[in-house]
Design goal:
Length: 298
């Protein structure tokens, strides 16, 4: 997905809110906004939005001297999500379609995103974790099931801290023996890293790798060679989060995008309102399911 002019005001907001969220130094606030204005003036709109997010947060870490400005927030999100996990696991067990229920829980938890809101209270996090009632869901679920049934090698691209605890429900339901989970290669925003995966016990369920990048998405040309090889080998990729949709849409036919729609630009892209839980199947799954339905009616 390319960057749109509509994204530029959002980048400015993010840069200022991020700076205010990690330091009270007004000089840093001014510097990061000025740097963002200069960056935006020469921005290549053919690059995906996470490319800009990466630049913002590299500069923020440089100006503050903090390697991971969101470490404490991520630790808190993970703890709150682990506390909520038994309730969510019980909900999944009661469901007639456990995988769909697990997926919806995991996508609802995608709301824990500090690119969208610079500060989350404990109540906000709990609401994101347990606030499924009445949320619209988009996606051909049957097409995803058919794609998943044929896949013995699934690469699961995690997104945020806190959310990654709920991803455990999906991994357990898919079958850990065929899943590898990937996280960010270095801190950016509240995105999950290897430390977050370990805090929620994901490494006890499945193999966990990192992508070698500090972008808030998956920009393949910025990822490590080993990750790119693993990405190419996967039969099915589940890409969590809007940043992964922005950076990987159009990249391959075997990618399912699971995320909460958080901005009008992406909402227009997928034809659903902001707030929708998007469970978009891979293109191969959509085509296969469409062909099967056509055969049923021929």
């Amino acid at each position: 997905m390319n960057t749109y002019l509509d994204c530029v005001p959002c980048f400015l907001r993010q840069s200022l809110e991020a700076a205010r969220g990690v330091t009270s130094d007004a000089r840093v606030h001014e510097r990061i906004v000025r740097e963002m204005l200069l960056f935006a003036a020469h921005l290549d709109l053919n690059r995906p939005p996470p490319f800009v997010g990466q630049a913002i947060h590299r500069k923020l870490r440089e100006l503050t001297g903090l390697e991971d400005p969101y470490r404490e927030a991520k630790h808190r999100f993970n703890r709150l999500a682990m506390e909520a996990l038994p309730e969510l696991a019980a909900l999944v067990q009661r469901s007639g379609d456990r995988l769909r229920a697990a997926a919806q829980c995991a996508v609802a938890a995608n709301a824990i995103d500090m690119a969208l809101v610079s500060a989350f209270s404990d109540a906000d996090v709990r609401a994101a974790l347990c606030g499924l009632a009445g949320e619209a869901v988009q996606g051909d679920w049957q097409a995803f099931l058919e794609a998943a049934a044929d896949a013995n090698d699934i690469l699961y691209l995690a997104d945020n801290a806190g959310e990654i605890a709920v991803d455990r429900l999906v991994v357990e339901t898919l079958g850990p023996q065929r899943v590898t989970v990937a996280v960010r290669g270095a801190p950016v925003l509240n995105d999950a890293t290897l430390a977050d995966a370990e805090q929620v016990g994901m490494h006890e369920l499945v193999r966990v790798i990192d992508n070698g990048s500090d972008a808030p998405g998956t920009i393949l040309d910025d990822c490590s060679a080993s990750f790119r090889r693993r990405f190419e080998r996967a039969e099915l990729i589940i890409a969590k989060g809007q940043g992964n949709f922005e950076s990987l849409s159009g990249v391959g036919d075997n990618i399912a995008f699971w995320f909460k729609v958080k901005c009008p630009v992406v909402a227009r892209q997928i034809g659903s309102p902001v707030g929708t839980l998007a469970l978009l199947p891979p293109a191969t799954g959509r085509r296969k399911h469409a062909a099967e339905r056509a055969g049923e009616h021929s």
